[in-house]
Amino acid sequence: MTSSSPDHPGERLGRPATGRGSIGRPGRRIGALFIDYAAATILATAFFGYDQFALPEKAGWTLFAPMIVFAVLQVVFIPTIGGSPGHRILGMRVELARGGWPGLWRPIIRTVLLVVVLPAVIWDADQRGLHDKAVGTVLVRG
């Protein structure tokens, strides 16, 4: 008897249930996001400073410096090392849904959608966010 619902995330994509190539689970994904954003905040503060008493209207673009650095980290490291520093530290990588290198343009579009946040928190049965579905990528254990 067959079921229309998959037994594990990534089954419809031909991914194994566990181990190398399986879908990166939420705990690892959130951990990687935390690592990446913490690194971006530290780098942004080191290079652009931080004024804890500045009013938002006086802070200007430096208010967005951590998010800009976060986006740069994503766009630079996904095509070069296969994932962001947080992804790689936690044993994951970004690749095409059918397997292989995501190229240069996909990490850019994926990152823009990730920064918007909403596409990243809406997942399908394969635990792929809309940001991954839009560009045909998947975050897998590596």
From TrEMBL:
Record's InterPro entries? Pra-immunoreactive, RDD, UCP021697
Q: TM spans, by residue?
A: 30-50, 62-82, 103-123
Keyword vocabulary terms for this entry:
Cell membrane, Membrane, Transmembrane, Transmembrane helix
The record describes its membrane topology as: Multi-pass membrane protein
* Stretches for region Disordered: 1-24
Where found in the cell? Answer: Cell membrane
The residues covered by the RDD domain are 25-135
Name one matching Pfam family. RDD
Source species, please? Microbacterium aquilitoris
**Name by which UniProt lists this protein:** RDD family protein
